Amino acid sequence: MGPGIVLDSDPEGVLVAGTAAGGVTEGAASSPDRPRGGATDRGRVAPEGLSRAPAPVTVRALRRIRLQLTAWYVGTFALVLAVLGISLFSVIARQLARDLDASLHAAARAVAQAAQIREVEAVSATGGVVDAVEELTIPGRELYLFDSAGRPLTPPRADPHVISVATRAADAGVADQHFKRRDPAGDRNLQAHAEQFTLKSGKRYVAAVVADRVELEDRYAALIGAFAGAAAAALLLVAAGGWFLAGKATAPMARTLAHMRRFMADAAHELRTPVAVLRSRADVALQRERDPAAYVAALSAIGVESERIGGIVDDLLMLARADAGERPLVRRRLYLDDIVLEAVAGVRVLAERRGVELAVSEYEEAPVDADPVLLHQLVVIVLDNAIKFTPSGGRVSLRVRAEDGRAVVTVDDSGAGISAAELPFIFDRFYRGVDARSHGEGAGLGLSIARWIADAHRATIDVESTRGSGTRVTIRFPVSSAQPASR
Predict the structure, then answer these.
(1) Where does 33-186 have alpha helices with state H?
(2) Are 35 and 10 within 8 A, CB to CB?
(3) Considering the entire predicted model, what is its pTM?
(4) Does the pLDDT value for residue 40 go beyond 50?
(5) Domain 332-476 indexed as CATH 3.30.565.10
(6) How far apart are CA 19 and CA 21, in angstroms?
(7) Where residue 145 falls among pLDDT bands split at 50, 70, 90?
(8) Any idea where the domains of the chain sit in the sequence?
(9) What CATH superfamily is the domain 116-220?
(10) In the list 100, 301, 379, 445, which could disulfide-bond 343, CB 3.0-4.6 Å?
(11) Is 379 helix (H, G, I), strand (E, B) or coil?
């Protein structure tokens, strides 16, 4: 910041201009709505009202999407089960009906056989004859024997519906009929089958069999109950599995939205600070008449802050394009050592201004297949960070070498180092450690861009650091697919 101007932060985070000498702040006089407060160190985290504000609409929307996906899973599976159940029930119902018909046919043949036995015994027996038809019993079946005219013989009486089906069988040879019979216990659904047969003597009779369809209905009910139970259990499992899978499906979306909210909040905070400085400096400069030198100083300070805003916006734009895949790589085969020398030449002025020694301690030909613009930016970012956080009189050394066909660049500095607690977060966007906040430089986007460039080139970037012992950054590029063009 320019001389004579400091920033105070009010309880709501509004920045105002003040004097370095500790007197009455001129910005406060021109802006009475801005209360002053003690200075705070915010680091990378945006104000509470921005970065940690709940997003109930987004949460509800994601929960609604998850519920809808689960409902689709369950609905689709239920439809499949319904189609499968109806088809299965139809097939099994027809099979059960055929089994019942076959049982009635078999019972009718048994009656015919019993009638034949009765006739034979009546001819050959010398004493009393036991009626084989009367003695014949089949569990769950009512058995009848009719003469050729449809009159009941055994037993001598029959239900009118049974007589009707027997009469039709006497004329047509076979007949079937469903009917209801009223009992004290309620109506019974019965099925009758009758068929005509001829004994060896030439006499014709009609055998009739009646079965209660309740056994068929009981089997239907058991089948439906078993299938319904299995379907209900399956639907519960599908609902649980669907909820779990929907959660897995929406988790990346939730993380993306959370990242976007955090990114927007951090960006707003980082931009708000220099914008507030610009406004404050303008307020101070315009509050009263000043000499040209004061205006020049104020405009110079405004230019510095404008430059910082421009840098932040450029970095944000690059990251946004990277996230959207709108920054294609223009790869060509080149030498990493050439790119490194260009980057060193570009940052040497910064190193000299800070009193930091910048040296290339090892230099080998290292071919790579990369985007030259992004590769140059990657090396500049790493060197710029090393120089910024190395105290005056310190040293930053750089090595370029080839290891097993892989190009490797290593940057070592003699700075204060990075604590173990901060090291996992240095590539996060807008993250600034204690030293970065105390220096008051940058927006915490440089290493994020460096990581993106490295990832885009399938390179690895590793940071080793111990508090008080300096930092080492190593970038390893994949093996070049072919030899680069000649220099």
Answers:
(1) 48-51, 56-124, 132-135, 160-172
(2) yes
(3) 0.47
(4) no
(5) yes
(6) 5
(7) very high
(8) 116-220, 332-476
(9) PAS domain (3.30.450.20)
(10) 379
(11) helix
